[in-house]
Amino acid sequence: MIDLLFRLSCSLNKLLLLLGALILCLMMALATCNMIFGFMGQPIKGAYEVTGFLGALAACLALAPTQQVRGHITVTIFDRFIPYKIRHFLNLAAQVLLACFFFLIIRQLVLLGLSLRLFGELSESLRVPFYPLIFFLAFGFGALVLTLVVQLLNREKR
User: What range defines the domain where residue 31 resides?
Assistant: First the structure.
């Protein structure tokens, strides 16, 4: 079961990395085209709004793959003063708290997305619905929680 979750998490994180790279390329192309067309007096309508949406997606999609390689910033200034068993317990507790915290974020994002869909909330300049973006952000955080859980289970397996 743990191996299945591990493979699922790895595959999902590879997909998220690919999507994040595509989104970053799209953001770069949009910004470049907007500058070029702006110099010609025809800026792309809603380019700033779309760039903001894509930036949020790119950041959210990078969370789980970064966690998988343990690339997030950690403060280790006191590690040499703390015995290994206590440090291990503190890391374990921190990961459990993070998984719970991000699960609450997912819950709130889903509730927000449902609310935005119910009330028909649209973006300001392009008038597109917000809720698909919110659900996609929840999915990105879900991948992060899956990665945290897989790392916790792998710790306990050792």
Answer: 2-157
- Cα 50 to Cα 8, 44, 55, 63, 126, distances in angstroms: 30, 10, 8, 20, 9
pLDDT per position as a tens digit, 51-78: 999 999 999 999 999 999 988 888 788 8
Question: What is the pTM assigned to this prediction?
Answer: 0.90
Residue that the structure tokens 């119910």 belong to? 118
Q: How many helical (H) and strand (E) elements, i.e. helices and strands, does the chain have? A: 4, 0
Confidence band for 158, pLDDT divided at 50, 70 and 90: low
The domain total for the chain is 1
